[in-house]
Fold DUF2264 domain-containing protein.
Amino acid sequence: MSVFTPPAGLFNPLADNPCRTREDVEKALQALVRPLDPFRSPGGARVRLGASAAHFDLTAADFEGFARPLWGLAPAAAGGATWIDWEPVARGLAAGTDPEHPEYWGPVGDKDQRLVELAAIGLTLRLAGEHVWQPLSDKQKRNVADYLLAARPKEYADNNWKFFRLMVDLGLKVVGVPFDPEPSNRFREEIDALYLGDGWYRDGSPRHVDHYIPFAFHFYGLILATLDDDPRNERFRERARAFAADISRWYADDGAALVFGRSMTYRFATGGIWGAMAFASEEALPWGVIKGYYLRLLRWWTRRPIADRDGVLSIGYTYPNLLMSENYNSAGSPYWALKAFLPLALSADHPFWSAEELPCPTRSTPRALRHPGMVVSNPPGDSIALSSGQQNLTMRFGAEKYAKFAYSARYGFSVESDERRFFDAVFDGAIGFSDDGRHGRTRETNEIALIADDTLYALWHPFPDVEVESWVYWAEPFHVRVHRVRTPRPLHTIEGGFAVAREDGIVPILDQESGRALAETRTDLSAIVDLGSTVKRTGRAHRAPPNTNLIAAKTIVPQLLGQIPAGESLLVCAVIAQGNPTTVRDALRNLPPNPDVAALKHLMAESGVSVTAMTGAADC
């Protein structure tokens, strides 16, 4: 029987791009923006890419479709690109800011999505003003200036949004429009208040520390440090230099980025940190190393079905998936991915482009990252972060996105698609509890979160009257989880390892027995093994519901199932998954020893440091 193979590039405009040179990267940008042309409105101000909804109005969503491609187009123009048709963009800018035009973007309100998109307008005026400002009439220029000025006094969200006003200021300055600098001075102080140290920020309150830090805080900060002569911007360079070594651990040696937190539909926007370092000529790591992280990331994305049939980027991560979307994701949202193309503003002789791409450095030992509350290891083809568990009760699936025990660049994470089917739940990287066999509860927040050496500790409550103490640490190539559970009533429990892709037509090897579960595919082996719990747990290689994982549409996850009696129980397991089944099978012959819980408690008492970013408590 023949196997149907779709045409190359059907679901990925980058499929045939080697992404090794500046020319390749510019062609990648062309391939991504070309499919948008048919969806532009007659006046040019609106780009409508789909019928799915976000929480903001449709006009703002259309504006998002107009503005987000500019994050790539404006730098390309600054770097000399001549293939961009700026006429409809300039026409759209004039129409969108004209209250009398039918395609007017509408007035800007407090915490309005328009505030987000205006940041791209500010950067475009600064980098490509001759294409979008100079062609306008005097009246049209006044409309654009008035629209930007009217937005500046509005209330911005207390997080990375603080940068958006500063980005608008860049545009106003270059076109000679005066404005009151005081609101922006206040925002600079408020951005500084979000700084935690060692290059890390918190993205609002509670203290979310996720991938917005590299592709928002450092991205905008380095742009300001390059384009704005305010001496206070020097701090953004200093912080980026401090940040580089830590954030590099979020990248696997094959280019994949750690999957953690919200807004994953922005995909390779995470490469914005490396592109911004290049743009700012900030050699925080050797140029060949920075270039390697940047290009490997783009190459990783050339192999994923990230677009619909017409070549428009879909909402999702490695495949279309509305289940994973945030309530602020419209059909145009994924084009924040084009932040990755900032280095196109640089000429081919810049050291970033002229340097030889270097392979990923060897990372032989785990690295503790206190501010995000993680201990990161980099086995071949992966970046795995053991996490203390951040609190995010406002995002859809916030517990899955922030509070699991382990996150992976290779295996991503999964969400639960039905809260009333406990025994069908995924629980990858997590442990779930149920008192009725139907509804499940996992960690959502912590009462206490500590880090000592390379060990993480958390005290949390899946139910108000059930207390769980969890220790997580590396015993490479495994990570070990220890849970002390105190409950007044019996509970069902399921604990999961990493979910691996399940291919149609390929029969995976399943190994299920008391105390362990393995799921082996053609390329990967994932396992979870009980190390001596006080209750009997049975292994299961669970075929998870489809479209629940960010990386693979169908997965298998090894799990341990058991029943916990009333009183105190101890649950202990070792977890491993890698892209080399032979390596994993060899490791399973030498399991880590059963941990000494008394020693773990002593370690925390003597050396534990509060991971305040994790608690969501008042000190945040």
Remarks:
- The radius of gyration is 25 Å.
